[in-house]
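User: Structure please.
Assistant: Input sequence and predicted structure:
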Amino acid sequence: MNKESLREKHFLRFRYRAMLSYTGAILAICGMLMLTPLLLLPANPGELAHIWAFVTPAAVLLVGGMMLSRIFQPPEPIGLNVQEGGVIVLLSWITVIAFSAWPFVSILGLDATRAVFESVSGWTTTGLSVVDVTQAGKMVLLWRSTMQLAGGAGLAILMMSAVIGPVGAGVSSAEGRADQLVPHVRQSARLVLVIYGGYATAGVIAYRLAGMSLFDAVTHSFAAVSTGGFSTRVESIGFWDSAAVESITIALMILGNLSFVTAWLFLRGKMRWVIRNGEIRLMTVLLPLAAAAVFVITCRGLYPQLGKSVRVAIFESVSALTTTGFSTVSYGDWNSFGVFVMILLMLIGGGACSTAGGIKQFRVYMLWKIVSWELHSVFLPSKAVLERPVWEGERRIFVSDSRLSQICAYVFLYLTTYCLGTLILCASGFSVQDSLFEFASALGTVGLSVGITSAEAPDTVLWAETAAMFLGRLEFVVVLMGVLKLSGDLRRMFSSANRSGHAKRY
């Protein structure tokens, strides 16, 4: 082995030691999170028999994570690039999802396909479910909502705010949290958790005042601020048929939809910068138009009472655009127009660097700006230089060609995946309209359903939706980047070892 190959091998080992250490820290934190349902035991002693369904996987994650973190701990914090962050995100998410499925198998008797589906739906804050909530105990229901709360914040945010110093923005960027509230990464992560925790706490209090039980208030607040959508009721928010509960949920969904940078500006009273945000402008146009159209063409003829039809149109539109997935009605009797509007809203999705999914409002806003700039350039001299400014937080930036290319490539990849997934559902025997709706919900991590997703759904459909939820939450590129880097680094390390062995034989 030559010196260059030896240096490369040592460098890769050094970097992967750090990556394994940080992955271990994430696993340990998630192991502690798995013990959360045990807090219900004093009030629900009848579920004591289910304790090991949470303690066993929690112990494996906690002990295994701590060992990884300690054994491979670098002498000092190491800054990671986005590719290395992608490896950490990929390894930690896959491992955590696998262990989080354990209670669904142990307690509810779900098979591996359905248990993994429910786990992925929770961590990706989707809300599609194969669990019969009328048969599930409170420990399982709390675990579902806890997964969504933690998944909305992101495993990288939990790790950096708790145990790791200034390791750089590589991990958070890979997990879709590229924007920072303050320059210091760890301080920014903690601010995100403070804002996020404040949303959840306010939601619990508001729900209690609106008449929910404490358990329902906690689980629905967790699911609302994470734009997750898991409910303890078959009818979701429609169970309460309450304007107060719906209003609180709408407020929480919109807060969860905002990027944390926008929320930070809003909380500091910097409304000038909030109003200039392209996502905010897009949302303030889309939501009223969508709700009004759904009310006039769909809801007004279905629900005789004016107040009910208005509430349904507003609530369902907000739930679809913010990718939360709560609902107050079923869609079985909706006309094609209403279903199509919901599909469009789910495809657009929520704010960038928020808990929401979908293509993201910023990318859609940028596509509109591209069209506007191209039309404007037609009337300019051929040698004119066209500026392309947009506002991001408090900064006015100029969009580069490379960034526009990345946005267009992502949207193309997203829509291509959407078409392929829809074809899989159609091939499984479902109608085109239902398949378009259901896969838009899965890929956008929404959680609204027309009935395709259930415990009786074919395994092919559930695995297609599982892959869609995972790719949608981690935004495709991260998964591809992590897989390519892992395979490339392993190939280099093994090729170096093979060259060394070949040299020794001769």
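Residues 163-168 have pLDDT under 50 and may be disordered.
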